[in-house]
Structures are given as C-alpha cells and as structure tokens.
Design a protein that fits this description.
With 179 residues, the protein is of the alpha+beta class. The protein is built from 5 helices and 5 strands. It is globular, with a radius of gyration of 16 Å. It binds acetyl coenzyme *A.
Length: 179
C-alpha cells in the first residue's frame, strides 16, 4: 500500500487538474488534495471507497496497472465525456472520496450539453467534513466550465437533504427498467 503522497506531476491524470475550480481546491483542508482520477488510483483504494455507495467488487486486472514509469500513459484518459475525480489523504496517499460527472451532448437546445453527476462516495471515517460538498462543487464547476446548461443527478430520498445543501432542487422523477 502506498504511503508517501504522490504529486500530480508524477501521475497519469484522466484530464487536466485545472478543470477543477481553484476555489474548491483552495477551501479543502490542508491534509487533503482534490484531483482527477489517475491510472494508478486502484492502488490507493479507489474501489473500496465506492463500497459505501453500493456493491463495488474488485474489477481485477482492468484497473490494476503496475504503478511503474513504464505504465504512465497507459492508464485511463478522459475521452472528454467522463470526468472522474478523487480526494486523496496526504498522510497516507489513499483515496477518501470520489465522484464523476459525464457530459451528454444533446440534439436539442442548439446542440447543448448536460452534465450528469454519478457515484459520489466519501469514506465513512471522513463523512461529515464537507468532502461530499467539495466533490459536488468540483463536478458542477467542471460541468459549467465545459458549457453545460444544467447538471443533474439521481439519488435516494435519504440523500435529498445533502443535495439540497449542495444547491440542487428536486425536479421530475427517475424511471427504471429493472433487469
Ligand atoms: N441527510 C441530511 N443532511 C446531510 C446528509 C444526509 N444524508 N448527508 C450530508 N448532509 C449535510 C451535512 O450535514 C452538511 O450540512 P451542513 O452544511 O449544514 O453542515 C452538508 O450536507 C454537506 O455534507 P458533507 O459533509 O459534505 O457530506 P459528506 O462528506 O458526508 O458526503 C455523502 C455526503 C456523499 C452522501 C456521504 O455521506 C456518502 O458517501 N454516503 C454514502 C454513499 C452515497 O449515498 N452517495 C451518494 C449517492 S447519489 C449519487 O451518487 C448521485
């Protein structure tokens, strides 16, 4: 398990770190760092953090490149659709929070774009410290920066108060085709 904090310059990031608004980076506690997902975050506990959200089994070799310089560049790169981010503890270089926004190109409203927020998770020991709020602010900032006319998400009734505190309001309903 990695222990020394890894700087952005030594990572293969999914997209440029500058996409995350500077205001969000500035208000994060000193011992934490927010950045795009890197190709080696599998080794920093990215998948276990997601288990607070739902079943998140180990995806195996697909996400397990050996973190050597030879592998830099072979990892996940954003295709300009998915923008996954993480919050990392500087104390032990482990992921403590994560979330994604993906950008949907529309035919309507003059070929506009909508941002969809997905898979927000904060490690149980770190909940209640505004990290969820910071992840949402970062993702809505990325979405707005990429020109979306709105950012939307689905959540359980239980999480409605959290998203209201983040500035969202309830509108319409989610429909599911169950498999
Ligand atoms: N009910 C009411 N208020 C809440 C809740 C809740 N369930 N969760 C957070 N809040 C409030 C906080 O008290 C805080 O209020 P304050 O500003 O008055 O102090 C505000 O919302 C911000 O809370 P954070 O500290 O930023 O929340 P946290 O870091 O704990 O993250 C999260 C919230 C992401 C829901 C976390 O609890 C978590 O990982 N839960 C399990 C996974 C999950 O449910 N993820 C969301 C799924 S929906 C999706 O992914 C689109």
């Amino acid at each position: 398990m990695a222990t020394a904090f890894t700087e952005d310059k030594d990572l293969d990031l999914a997209f440029p770190a500058e996409f995350i608004p500077a205001e969000v980076r500035a208000v994060l506690p000193e011992d934490l760092h927010i950045r795009p997902l890197s190709s080696t975050d599998y080794h920093r506990g990215h998948i276990p953090v997601l288990s607070v959200l739902t079943h998140a089994p180990d995806p195996g070799g697909l996400l397990r490149p050996t973190p050597t310089p030879a592998n830099i560049g072979r990892g996940f790169k954003s295709n300009q659709v998915y923008f996954p981010i993480v919050i990392v503890s500087k104390a032990n270089d482990q992921v403590v929070g994560t979330g994604t926004v993906f950008m949907e190109k529309k035919f309507l409203r003059g070929l506009s774009t909508v941002g969809h927020i997905e898979d927000i998770a904060v490690d149980k020991n770190q909940q209640g410290k505004k990290l969820g709020l910071r992840i949402i602010q970062a993702l809505t900032g990325i979405s707005e920066g990429l020109g979306a006319y709105k950012t939307i998400l689905n959540c359980s009734d239980h999480n409605i108060p959290f998203y209201e505190k983040c500035g969202f309001s309830k509108k319409e309903n989610e429909m599911v085709w169950p498999f």
